[in-house]
Amino acid sequence: MSTAQSPCRFEEAERGVLVVSPRPELNDVQWADIEQIGDGILQRVQSQQRPRVVIDLLELNYMGSAMVALIVRVWKSVDERSGKMAVANRSDLVGEVLELAGLSKKWMMVESREEAISAIGGGIGSGSDQSVGGGMLMAVGAIVCAIVACIGLVAMMEDMMAKGPAVAMLCLGGLAGIAFGGLSVAGGSGIGRILGILGGAGSVIMLVVGVVALASQVDTPPPPPEQESPSLDEDLGPADELTPSDVPPALPDFPPVESAGTESGSGVVSEETISVETEEPAEESTTAEENNTESEPTPSAESSVE
């Protein structure tokens, strides 16, 4: 059975939106066949990371319990994958069935297929563009924050600025880059999602490298202080510790120096003599006098010769 002849059409609209359109013939299909149709729809829904599904009920005037069960299965699968689902309906009877089942308050109900696609972010010029644009902005923010974190890391490792501001740039840029990257991946698509992944990954790398660098700086012991050469006072020690043997002997007291000067034609010539008085023994002086007396001739001897 082709898709056009199937009691439930399944197609993919713009921007990856999946559109499920049950037809009135589905109310006459056996329960087992409805289960089989539901399995095929669920496979397509689960193939997307965050599916966006539109249930188009515009062709229905009545809705049986089997069809309600099919739509509930699709809704649960979308909800498990954090996707979005909207229901387009104009029939009052179908709306009453959904209201009695308590589903009208849980689902996004609109009156046209285009409104349903726009409501879940699939229409051109609608909230989809805002979502894509927001995802791109988040991706750019992630890239910028990763660059800021890189600058902070380089400044910290190369001592280009004080360590405090550099670490602050690294931490704030890295954490903000991770946050923006996650939001970009969650709400963006295409290039925006890729840029968000790159920005978030770069921020994580900068943070890890920064933490490792800080840990290595903390573990490295500081260089030992330079030892100063001991001074003379430190070698000798305090004065009160000197012993008498350490004091050098005093020099003898010499008598005052007498100076005498004579004038000459060219100037004054001074002569200095140092006289040291010493006491000679009395015996030596007496011996000298006796020697002088013996050497002189006596007067009597001279007269006899004459």
From TrEMBL:
It comes from the Bacteria. Residues 246-255 have a biased composition (Pro residues). Keywords: Membrane, Transmembrane, Transmembrane helix. The chain crosses the membrane at residues 53-75, 136-155, 167-188, 194-215. Residues 277-293 have a biased composition (Acidic residues). SUPFAM superfamilies: SpoIIaa-like. Residues 219-306 are annotated as: Disordered. This is STAS domain-containing protein.
